[in-house]
Fold:
Amino acid sequence: MNQDLHKIIIVGGGAGGLELATKLGDTLGKKKKAHITLVDAKKTHLWKPLLHEIAAGSINPDKDELDYLAQAHWHHFHFRLGMMDGIDRANKTISLAPFIDVDGVEIIPRRTFAYDTLVMAVGSKINDFNIKGVAEHAIALDTQHQAERFHQRLHNAILRAQTQAEAIQPGQLEVVIVGAGATGVELSAELHKATREMTAYGLDNINPDRDIHISIIEASNRLLPALPERMSLSVRKELEKLNVKLYLGESVVEVDERGVKTSSGRYIDSSLVVWAAGIKAPSFLANLGLKVNNINQLHVRSTLQTLDDDHIFALGDCAACPIKPGSLEMVPPRAQSAHQQASLLFKSIKKMIKGKNDSLPEYRYQDYGSLVNLGSYSTVGNLMGAIAGGSMFIEGMIARMMYLMLYQMHLYALHGFTTVLLRLIVKFITHRTEARVKLH
Structure:
């Protein structure tokens, strides 16, 4: 590596981090004006909004995951596998913990990397609020591994019920989803469809309408509490049509191996509990000597620079950023926020390399609305700002097409138009030769 090049390290290969690394690589990296390194604890990237479909078995993750090493090779940046666990701000280096394989063997030793500009883009994880039993008995949907693990448990539960001699026990095929945000409601609809398709493949001892049950528990008095009420009401009507049980205004106080106990004293039998309530940033951020809030998010100014160090930026869910300069309201943890912030940091870093540190752009959150996809049943949305000229509620086919376009826009940012078009053609050709649900 040319030691004179500006060294940029991006920690976290989620949507925002990977899009930023790709843009910087295609410009500064390709022209040898900077050395860009992306760090992630996993080898592959998967768009996080797909996790509920993987959990339900609606998609095969092998076809949608992206290899970081390949992306780095194609787009002129470098990838390093490992989990950041420390920082030396005086010497401007970060440390990565040793990488251990599934057998407990150390594959990669501890390493340190020097930076001139550091970008933290490590996202968020589910917040269990230290509720008893959640960590042991519930499955979060933070990672591809967790989504695949839930699918395996669901698939095995259905196979067991299909072949057992005794009657299906209470809770055996009951899925309880804690949290009625977008992930929770989308997962419930996707599970309803996927379990019926799964049982259609010869599992004739199971009647999904009679034997498979899906419940959502939400502490708020409505679904999608962070989104407009009209969307909440529309989604509720659709889920009630699917006989999804809704326990609103109830909070979970304990999860055990047999089910879930709520604040009202209700006990719901379930061997399949998904935790989708609340988020927090990774805990290691609180140990870096940088200011964080009570959910470990790094406090940043509107330039996305951390309060304590102008050479360290943060974006996405791990950043506590004002929605506009001077505001006390923080940017919501949404995919569009990370995308917007990655685009701003792309401009900022190019300015810094040119020595224009005093004129960095400031971030102002633009809410373009929300889309909630209930699979083949319905899609609802609320468009805002320049797209709608105000606020506009949409549902049905138009909303569905716009939802599908969100993923294509992410792929376009990573691969360009030609690759996205070819992927769509291949998917159309192979659609009729594949099972509609993953059966293993």
Observations:
- The CA atoms of residues 21 and 38 lie 7 Å apart.
